[in-house]
Records
---
Amino acid sequence: MDLIIRNANLPDGRTNIDIAIESGRIVAIDHKLPARAVQEIDAAGNLVSPPFVDAHFHMDATLSYGLPRVNQSGTLLEGIALWGELKPLLTQDALVQRAMQYCDWAVGRGLLAIRSHVDICDDRLLAVEALLEVKKRVAAYIDLQLVAFPQDGILRSATALTNLKRAMAMGVDVVGGIPHFERTMADGAESVKILCEYAADNGYRVDMHCDESDDPLSRHIETLAYHSHRLGMQGRVTGSHLTSMHSMDNYYVSKLLPLIREAGVAAIANPLINITLQGRHDTYPKRRGMTRVPEMLASGIDVAFGQDCAMDPWYSLGSGDMLEVAHMGLHVAQMTGQEAMRACYRAVTETPATILGLEGYGIQVGCHADLVILDAANTIEAIRLRAARLTVIRRGKVISQMPAAKASLQLDGRPSQINFRLS
Ligand SMILES: [Zn+2]
């Protein structure tokens, strides 16, 4: 045996579990395994989780905050315009360097699988080349899945559809789209049809930015579900953002949710970004803008939380911390019940792993030995504390360590060391 992790608490609530690892895979999970291993790690009643998965990110834009200037209005549209100003200034070296820095942060946070959109509207496809290079460089420790994202719209931009197909031929994994940004509702619907048919014909997954708007009449998710169902793409199609659903008429939503479920379309909310960008045209009351997460979960739809942005034209903060994402999602969706909080943890682990189609993900015999030991007893405490990732393991090898968060108090008669955990 290469490694045994002892005394682990698992996300499903089991406690005092030992996990045995050999040749990069989990080979046994049980109470008090009698086996011995070359290396043993005592998890000491801490949560041992499969790694965090970010199903929605933009690695081509990350860490470019302030280049060439800061987003003054804070809106999505100014962010897109700003990105348009930045694009001609990008160099491959700078793109790779920023993405690699972000990937280092991700590893430190136990984030070992990322689906990143990459803008294909620059005819040079510089960002595509850069992120394919990054994908290769980080492959040993991060599963990086790329989505060909036509930021300027495949019908609105003259070369976007050609570029998207070029990007797929170069090795990009997933077909993207942005129907709400096309010139008209009809063009948006047409773009969904074109992209879904192209993906179905070529066996690709689909993940579109869909209805990232406060317009209650932006209903491209209906079209996405329709084509997903028609083309037999159940389980391979995702609608990202879906913020217009926040503002939709309740009666219409009551018809829409079963259609999404029937079509096997998954949803990705991006709580940090949605709460920041949406509702910007409102005075008061001001809409939150995040999609209807608890309602979709209750309808049997897979919902993940994505990070979307970290220090880029759209968002000035972020550090690759999926617990911060889950924490914000929990608050914005008011998912404060015990089971709802646990669902928020699944939305940054198991559910996005399913959306990405990751092989061997999870804590079961036969799965990859990709694990994170957190400074928390369970998933709810992990979210509450945005708990330190004490040890990050990939394929059975420790790849990152972080000290527990502790404070040394100088108060008479009080314990000197506290760790913010209820014990
Ligand atoms: Zn996005």
---
Amino acid sequence: MLKTKVEVPDDLNPQETSEWIEALDDIIDAAGPDRAAYLIERIMERAANLGVQVPMRWNTAYMNTIPPEEEAAYPGDRALERKIKSLIRWNAVAMVVHANKYDANIGGHLATYASLATLLEVGYNHFFHGSHVGASGDKLPGDLVYFQGHASPGVYARAYVEGRLNEKHLENFRHELREHPGLSSYPHPWLMPDFWQFPTVSMGLGPISSIYQARFMRYLENRGIIEKSNRKVWGFLGDGETDEPESLGALTLASREKLDNLIFVVNCNLQRLDGPVRGNGSIVQELEAAFRGAGWNVIKCLWGSGWDDLFARDASGLLLKRMHECVDGEFQAFRANDGAYLRKEFFGKYPELLKLVEHMSDDELWNLRRGGHDPVKVYNAYKRAVEHKGQPTVILAKTVKGFGLGEVAEGRMTAHQQKKLSEDDLRRICKRFNLDIPDEIVASIGAYRPSEDTQEMRYLRQRIDVMGGSLPTRKVKPIEIKAPPLELFHDTIGGSRGREASTTAAFVAVLKSLMKDHTLGKYIVPIVPDEARTFGMESLFREFGIYASQGQKYKPVDANTLLFYKEAQNGQILEEGITEAGSTASFLAAGTSYANYGVPMIPFYIYYSMFGFQRVGDLNWAFADSRGKGFLLGGTAGRSTLLGEGLQHQDGHSPVLASTVPTCAIYDPAYAYELAVIVQDGIKQMYEEGKDRFYYLTVYNENYAQPPMPEGPGIREGIIKGIYKYRPCQSGQAVAQLFGSGSILNEALRAQQILAERYQIEANVWSVTSYNELRREALEVERWNRLHPASLEKVPYIVQATQGSQGPIIASSDYIKALPDQLSPWLLGRLNTLGADGFGRSENREHLRKFFEISAEAIVQATLAALAREGKFDAQRAQSAVAELGFDPEKKNPALS
Ligand SMILES: Cc1ncc(C[n+]2csc(CCOP(=O)(O)OP(=O)(O)O)c2C)c(N)n1
Ligand SMILES: [Mg+2]
């Protein structure tokens, strides 16, 4: 066995040290590594009991975790697999180079896939299942693979060689808007809905989403919604990508929940975009410590089979010592140069090492591969990972960025952005991978696939068959659920009957009704990041249980109360703890389960609204790209309605941020019945009608009387479309229109009263449930009119709804003015907007609304001013009303203070 004698400078008794080490060596030789590990553990225990402080080490040597003697033989045909892999390499290169030759700087990446090819090919041929056969004998969906986003050329190239894409597709890589559909730059289910499952290219989102995906798979299994299976989630990520907080931020969830259905493969090519990931250190060792410390099973796959013999013959342990001495910047340089350089700079440091490789030519040295490029090493790492029980596994695979691309890219600082190659470069690549590609195809940088009757193509078909289909594939089963009738929420629709209640409480009631529903109930997934009590949801704990993969191992301290904290293995609530990113990743897994598992889960993720779109906006964008369905509920909403919490908490802009997401429908309901109507219609649109959309709803914590849903035509339609007249003025001859939304509708109603009583001005009050929906519809109509100038003009809903109304419109909400201002193009100079622009303050609602000038008094004042400007109210009277209503005309603008 390998004898490692590391000299320690301050070793007081080297003789004694080597005796201990030899004793260990003997045990490994005689009884194997497991026995040795057991003994070391006992010794550590003893040391700790005797008060010996043994420094914690989370690193193993810079070697492969799996020694050669434990390797299984490779089950595939290496020669044919290499042939297929080389073909894929060619097509991946050709599509990027072709795109850039004919459309300068259209972009694309060569170097990432070049480093990843073996890691993917071993996976495709032996580990990634297109489908699984479940215990029941049923065909279940396949493994879920998160590909490194910018390795997409390699993924397309395989799909082409498999015959799933054609030459035109490849030719139109990054040309999506041509006649023949092209290929999107990166994985986007929105753009290629039959192909990509997971949008991964925003660094960090793939890793965190894959962790929560694996967890959600267990959740569905433990709740009996899907069959238990051997399905795996594979997360491929770059070593540079691990610097994103999202990449490593949820590691302990995976180990805590024993997610042995999760495998990370970190493509450790030691480089990111600008240069080395850890030029002065070792990314592999750093990640090993992080993952091991977080409780993961770590498999290092660093060196190819060529190194086995060198390690075996290196009795001195100097080879390993030399490896430990080198930082990543040096390892990168070894690959960017040649065999002679490697001999001189790496082996040359010690005469013994030079001797070790004296029988090898420079070329042979150069051909010593890294673990991630050796199918045997990769196969064994994967095999061990899929067989490992009780922990998630990470494989740290050492590779070369730009492997095989030659001097222009291999290991170069500029490798990441290399996208142009000369014909000579291309010929060299063909030679390097023994590719027999017709000359004219090389010259035209074309796609190439051998005929079906070749050995390699037959082998490829056979492997796909054995693995149960191709990946990635996004196959969506039709959803078969129906929305509940509105009557399911009859309590909510009936109002609060004199009591005061918040729309948040109304939401909880709606959620409960849904969860209790016989058909829909089981599909509902409430998600909350440690705010359930804030939202009054603790009543759900006992009734539906909090999901806990291991059940509840303790008697909760509140066990004798009615609403005790109940954790259960089949619990329905995802109580995520304080992680908005994690909760959103759960929302993503649940909201796309209709596609990935064939079960239409309906997630309701409620959170502190300020910590939503502005904190995890990119995950929400990925949710939309993924065609996710579900409801986001921004709780404690509104800059003035959330009292006391101040600048960091009071949200006055989420609906505006949400409006930037194309598939997000945004509503700001004032009353419980509005909320119920929106949720019922949302389920219908998303799940019954199959629309790709999701909802952002604001819910407030202000208690007020919740009126019953008004009778009458058009109310339901108005709520859904975004506006309806809530309370007309008494005379029916209004000279002004007041738009209110969310909790500020009540201020508009109070303003209506003040205007009538104090100033004899009649105004109508409208509830605007969605400025965004109104705008989107108006834009749609406007576009139609623009493109059909000879047809009868259509009229946007906002114009229809307000037709015939008189006078200025005063719109007030608890959000920045940009929200209502979205409608100004259709309100022809009538719109006067009040809003909560600026930073929040710790105060009560009364002071906050006065400060932001959105109170009833502010609405009255704005109405008088607008009427005065139109000559319909005395200007002097309007001026004196400013002070009368409690405002100082010279007060600093709250938006800027
Ligand atoms: C959030 C985010 N920031 C920046 C980028 C731009 N970007 C794309 S790839 C890349 C470098 C990736 O390096 P690494 O993760 O090591 O992958 P490799 O290509 O080396 O396999 C960067 C910075 C991005 N896609 N996402
Ligand atoms: Mg990298």
